[in-house]
Each structure stands twice: as C-alpha cells, then as structure tokens.
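pinned: reference chain
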Amino acid sequence: MIEFPGTEQEVRQLERFLNATEKQPSTPELDDMRTRALAHAERLSNAVSIGFAGEFGAGKSSLANMLAGADILPTGPQHLKLPLVIVAYADTPETTVGWWDKEPKVYSGIALEKAAADNPDFISVGLNTPALREISLFDLPGTGALDETYKPTLDLLKFVDCAIWCTNGANAWRETERHLWAQVPEELRANSLLAVTHADLPHVSDALDRVLSRLEKEKAGMFRSVVPIGTPVAVRAMAKEPEPDFALWETCGGQNLAEQVLEAASDRRQSDLDAARKDLSEHFMPYLDELTGDKSEEPEPDNRSIQSSLGSALPPLNNPILEDWLAAIASIYEDLRDSSDIEPAAFLQSCQEIVEDFAERLESGAEIDPEADWIPGEFEKATDLLLLLQFESGDAPLKDAIGILAQLSDNLAWAGSTVESAQTKTGT
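pinned: its structure tokens
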C-alpha cells in the first residue's frame, strides 16, 4: 500500500512564518520569501492533480471514471460537449460551474448536463470518495494533433502535477500523439504515464506484447512507465458482488495502473515536500530566528530525538505560560520514555487534554504578545489533530503527536509573555 507523505507539520511552519511576517515592512527579500511560502503552503494543502489526456476515442474518460470509483463522466460517442472536468473531494456531491473571468455557480449533486448548458470554461465535480482527499482527477477535452484542438489541451496541462496520456491499443502511440506530447514540459513528462487502453479487445491483446516492447523502447524522456489497461474489465471486476473480483482486477491491469498512479502522485508530493523543507530550513526559519532574536541552534528535524523535540524550545525569562506548558508535557514525556508498552490511545488522549487546557487558557490573550494572536488557533487545531490521531494505529500517530507538541512549544517560545508588563501596570 502506497502512503502519501504527511504535510501537516510543514504547512503549520509555513503558516507560522506567514503570520509572523505579515506586518513586517516590505523588502524584495521578504516579499520573495512570502511568495514562495504561500506557494508551498497552497501546494501542500491541495490534492495532487492527475490529468487524463489523449486523442478522441482513446478511453481517457472511462479511465478517469474507473479511478474515481464512479461512473460520472460520459464515455464513447456522445453529444454532450464538455470542457475540462475536475473530479475532487467534497463532503456532499456537488457540481461547480467555473469561468476564468467571473464567479462560479454551484449545483447540488452531479449535474453535468445542466453545467454544460452554462457554457463554462471548466466544471468541478465533488464526490465523497476517500481517495480523492489525496488526488484530484482532471479530465481534459479530447484532442487531435491535426487540428487546433490540441492547443487548449497543452494550455490545460499546466494545471496538473502528473498526467496519464491514453493511447488506443489498436493503433498505439501514433506519430501525431508523439508530436503533441513532445511539446509538454519535460518535468511533467518525467512524472507521467502512457496508458495503453482497450487492452481487453482480442485484436489488441493478441499483439500486446509486441506493442509494449516497442513502447518500452520509445518511452525514454517521454514517460516514467507504460501501463496496459482493459478499462471495461477493470470496472466489472470492481463491481462484482458481494466483493470485487481482485484476481480479474489484477490481470486486466487495474491494480497495476492504480499503483502506478498513486506512486507518481506520491513522488510528486514528496518532491513538493522536499522543496518546502529546504526553504524552511535555509530561509524561512532562519529569518524568523533573526526576527525574534532567537540564536539558539536547533537540531535537524529528521535527526531529532523525542527528548530533544520536546526540549527544543527553552523558556526565556519572564515567560510563565511556556514554563507551565513544558512542565505539563514533561510528565507525559516521562511516561513515554520510561514505559516500553505505553498504550498509544492513552498517551494521545493525555496530549489532547493538555493542549485543550492551554487552548482555553490562551483565549484571553493576556499571556502572549498581541502580535501572536494566531497562536490560540494553532492550539485549537492541534486539539482536533490529536483527537483524529487516536483513531489511527501504529507508531506514526505517536511521532506525529510529539511533532505537534514540539511545534506548539516553539510557538509559545516565540510568542513570549506579557504577564510582567501587566503586573507592572497594576502594581502587583
């Protein structure tokens, strides 16, 4: 099972940087860093986009339906002319009609025909499908390299992180397709797949080995891998009752394609994560340290032990709330260090209770710098995250919890305290 890299901690650090620098005087250096931080936060907060493209009749919409787990996109010869259709996650099914130059319109449920009648630039369909939390599907309009339809396709490909070019197995990877795909940026080609569709048809399957051998030789610099798929068979395999026909799902290519798509998306997410971490460690966090006068050296996140994670934010003078916070988490840290069989749920619940208590304490705003008014919100979000972690299994939730506590410690260390000044004013 391919797992997507977690991004919550990095997004929180990016938000911390953006909040802390929001009121700083504008300089070319800071403006550039804030632009990069915003781009990182937006990319890491959104699903990885997978684009489906190909010439007319290549079966790209059928493939998108299969991976979405819902038969929502029209396939085969049809009169419904659609623009770019985005299939993404939503709590309740809805259809959004969008234009590049005006406000969108939203219909409840799946309403492609109604949406198409509005002549939109794009349509977004929201489905409550768990897989769509990590990836979103972009079904691009069909194209032909001998007319002008390929130009919009090339323009739309700039919105996707990975792509699947669908080629009809009956006449796979024609010169017209090669000519069009060669115009796609190299970065996108390197993280894209060539799906050989209609592999279930007899006249295609009989020659499939020979076709795949040719395509493997030609994929260099064009695709990361070549994947044959019999889409109708894959759909039937997953629709079997009382449970899917997993053997058929594997033999028709469905399993291989799904894994290849998730691997490509995961690699793209990891690349984005690495870029954000590099900027955080080399630019954003050093800038914050300089801004706040924090010259203490902090170990690299990847090599940080549990103990150093919790102790990374040393309490400055006159910061009572940070001292109380570190004292509160010290007890649960001791339990974690001294016990080899600590119950994860109990540990996570203790973390949640402490964070919840401090979130209530911070609501008054009297114990932190007025410019750090975003910190109570960080504690509230951390409370929700720690609650969700209690429903997960394995060691990962414990490590995530330690990371959350360490980040909150850093936040309180940066925020400082206004208690001393308040006492001075009241004469106590």
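why pinned: Strands lie at 48-54, 84-89, 94-98, 105-108, 122-127, 135-139, 162-168, 193-197, 225-228. The CA atoms of residues 80 and 113 lie 7 Å apart.
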